[in-house]
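Re: the 619-residue chain
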Amino acid sequence: MFRTGVSRSAPWLLTPALAIGGLVGLATLGPLPALAQQAEKHQTSQQSLQRDRNYVHRLLERGTSDAKIESSLTLSTQFASFNPGGDIQAYVSNLVAEEKAKLQKTKQNQSSAIASQPVIAVSLSETASVPLNASSQAPSNSVGVESVKVAAQANGQINAQPNSQNGVQETIQTGSESESQTSSTVSSPVVGGGLLLSSVATSTSSSNQSTLANNNLTTQLHSTARSGEEQSGTGNSGTFNSAQGPGPGPIGPGPGCNLLPAPPSVGATVPLSYFGPPPSDTNQSLVGPVQLLKSGVVDPVHGTITLPLYLGHMKGSNKNVWYILTDVDDPNVAAELGLNFSAKLTFAANAARTANLNADGVLIFDKGTVDFSPVRSITPGPAGAEFPPASAQPGAIGDGDYSPFVRVLNAAGVIYNAPIVAFDVNASQISFPDGNVDYSRVHDEVVAIDPANMTVTINLINGFSFGRPVWYISMDTSIPLGAAIEHNTFAPLMQQLHLGTDDTFSSPIERIFISTNGAESGACNNPQRQGLSADLADGARPNNVLGGIPTIALDYSPAWDAQLFEWTGDAINKGFRGQVREEFQILTFVQDGLITGPGGKAFGSSGFSINCPIVQRLD
């Protein structure tokens, strides 16, 4: 019971005067909790507004179009939570206009400052052939994805490389360099469709990066150039193919690396504020954005998802097992935890490790370990035919008993998708809440990890499902070559998955379609960009095509049966090659003879699988 200023003695012992006084006091104090709640709500609302402002400002600095900013902000803002019934489209449009005006004023001030410093301009022309207004380009990503694994193992850092973007050559001056090399050998199995990759030797190299001239503007240019290289993947192929970590995010610099849909106001005579909410708000199977993996928070600015981090232990050794949960074969558990439901996971038992819950509800795993210490490295094939690579080394290797799938024996045998993100380390060894992750201890797809708050942030990847642009994460692959290209973990036990049967009875898999020789010229600026050769040429992801996902189909599985395909020489010569986005479009092109398996062989399963949980439908 709520009591204020009243003793615990019986209320009938109070005199009338005291009783009246107490009632007056209570009446006076009564509104205070409501006022406090209003103040707290106002403060939270202002914090949300400031986050939105910062978000819009960063995207404007990157040169993102107003239409894409409005579309993305509509997905991420909490405006509706604080303003029920408010006009979210007007809020978004006004915010973009305000931040655009501020940025324009800042640029004008910077231009005036630069014009008054001719000596500095001459100095810049000697160190970097970039325009003097380059400071208006995108700043460095606040969440670092540079690796310290190479520094730990090869005693050096990746050197800044020349970067060409939008026709402007950016050359950053560096000092002396020192290099060290390590090498190891991995046997790559047969990839179906007739493509055989022999054993490949991998070498990785790194070099110390010297400090630039002590000029603030030059330093800013250096930061901008590195940011563009990291985000777009358009640096020297020897650098990004040997870089540790997740690689570029899904918000690339051009239409070939950014699948965010334009808002409906494009081409209309009215602004976005006149349009109603997307149909998917009413029915998730209709057009519009839908977050499918609901257990995490999607950050559309950086293209990441922050998920709960779980800690389990190995049976016997009690070694720490840090993992995430993304999918489950029980619909009730999926609804409760915000995971993806996959009926097909029930048939993945032969490729799942086992575990039991202890008295504290902690998973104790019977088998399955991962070594995160290897250094990821790929040597691409020749220009125009970068896939298959000459050599490949994954950055994380599981033992023979490791699979991301886990069957919990004493909890009804439910099967979870529970990829390991760190193993046999304590919390202090993997505390990287602000990025700069040590990838010798942590999964390469992790952008930040915070054991204190038990969260982990993972990079999102562009793809398509039945014509819809989607974001997913990539955690494990059943062969070393695939794990190296995917920046994920080689999981040998996944080889037990039965492939090739797609949607038939007892099939644990769904199909993912991967081009080997899609369009790559122009890199991210090419809207038709797609495929593994493009990936290995420019560093951005290949825009793979997924089969069924929740809200579109009933046959979703995070275990994707890789079906590599190749455009025929005849199709390419006739100008028919383009970006494909839908399963039956691809199957039709196979039927029509435009597409085959690798090397002209029969199209079908390539003999390996990838663990790629779906996260977000963008449209």
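Residues 1-32, 114-237 have pLDDT under 50 and may be disordered.
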